[in-house]
Amino acid sequence: MNPTYPHPILAREGWPFIAIALAIAVVLSYAVPGLSFVGWILFVFVVQFFRDPARPVPQAANAIISPADGRIVKVEEADDPYLNRRALKISVFMNVFNVHSNKSPVDGEIINRWYNAGSFLNAALDKASTENERNALHIKTTSGHDVTCVQIAGLVARRILCYVEPKMNLTRGQRYGFIRFGSRVDVYLPLSAKPRVSVGDKVTGVATILADL
Questions:
Q1: Which of 46, 58, 145, 150 is the most buried (most CB within 10 A)?
Q2: Does the active-site annotation cover 198?
């Protein structure tokens, strides 16, 4: 799948699930009218989960944008396990009601990509960063900074999708992946970065600035 496809409002990853949910709702409406509301509730839930709205991208050259919708669960100095450095770590936890399409937080070139199979713990827990299934990208920004962006599966999530590879270039806000159901994204930034969010803040993918380089 081309990661740069135009935003279709409903993510293509969800089309099969939306079709199945619609079929269930229609069948229940005809076969068991008393339970039809269950099917339509399921259908509405699936549609809202796979929504993928287009959003304006902040234009400030030094802005690190949020790669996902959700709630900030970590803003701290931590070890970046991929680049073996101390870094500013900002973690965004996504529940099942958030948009799960993932966007690049910066303009830059993908230097490396790592995939680790793992557990499916609650993505809000600290140990999810090192124990859960995860996919990490090392992005070298156009200004020469190193950024690590990590997709992490959660308690319900069972599939991380990533459509980019090393040597590809990304622009801020460009769609590069998707995580099916509750999950998390960790961003590791240089220690010189200045955070603009705090633990507990709700963020909107692309529109919210996490930090300034």
A1: 150
A2: no
